[in-house]
Amino acid sequence: MSDNAKAKGRKRSILVPVLLFVTLAACSVAGYAVWRMMNKPEGEKSAAAKVEPPAAPVFFALDTFTVNLVNPDNDPDRVLYVGFTLRLPDEDTRRRLNDYLPEVRSRLLLLLSRQSAGALATEQGKQALVEQIKQVLAPPLVTGQPPQAVNDVLFTAFILR
């Protein structure tokens, strides 16, 4: 045998175990990575489990209101037809508003009848009305009760004629 043939035989005999070792190491790392992803530590699972979905919103729909508006011409044809839903913080507030619904409607009718047609025609006027509705419903309906909190006023109908 020549020296050249002996050198090739040694290279092949060393190359096969090295390739076998590299393949075995790569498979081991891949298997560990899959096992690690399947079995996450308890700390990560409990953090994901602690995230609770937000509470369902509490809405209180009111019947529509039709009121004559204040205008400089004293034109009786200036009418506001508006419907809205209140977003409330909790079920107790909704129950309280429902129990005293005539008082709530009276406060809102008085507020709406003081509005100006010109002001309500703009976006800023509608936003101001939302804030005024929140303020007029905030005081307690009966002495001894807590004040009402209204998170938002959502218009369901708004016709200005």
UniProtKB/TrEMBL annotation:
Locations listed in the record: Cell inner membrane; Cell membrane
Stored PROSITE patterns: PROKAR_LIPOPROTEIN (PS51257)
Keyword entries, A-Z: Cell inner membrane, Cell membrane, Cell projection, Chemotaxis, Cilium, Flagellar rotation, Flagellum, Membrane, Transmembrane, Transmembrane helix
Primary residence: membrane
Membrane topology, record value: Single-pass membrane protein
Alphabetized Pfam families for the sequence: FliL
PANTHER family documented for this protein: FLAGELLAR PROTEIN FLIL
Functional description taken from the UniProt entry: Controls the rotational direction of flagella during chemotaxis.
Family: Belongs to the FliL family.
Name of the protein described by the UniProt record: Flagellar protein FliL
